[in-house]
Amino acid sequence: MVPRDTPGRPDKFDDDDYPAYTMGRAAEMIGATPAFLRALGEARLVTPLRSEGGHRRYSRYQLRIAQRARELVDQGTPVEAACRIIILEDQLEEALRINEELRKDDRRDPPAT
């Protein structure tokens, strides 16, 4: 048995991007149908990896995104609009993160006088 903390070997249980969940299990976990997950794939919000047999496999990260989409759809938002909202939320979060990093850099390196 290989220890969990073996260098160079990521622990799949801790990896948010590891495609651990089948479509059926993923749908069950977020309270949706497999058709809903396929619709998210068609909208290119969530692109599951494929097993060697061609079955869709979802990661925990993808399930969080799908869960957010399901929440929006449950509130009456069309699937396509929900996908766009999530993409824009992600872009805004990234822009805010970059802004904060730039502000920290500015505070560390005051302008020369």
Automatic annotation (TrEMBL):
Span of domain HTH merR-type: 20-88
Alphabetical list of InterPro entries matching this protein: DNA-bd_dom_put_sf, MerR-type_HTH_dom
One Pfam family linked to the record: MerR_1
Transmembrane segments: none
Signal peptide: none
Database matches in SMART domains: HTH_MERR
The protein's name in its UniProt record: MerR family transcriptional regulator
Species of the source: Yinghuangia aomiensis
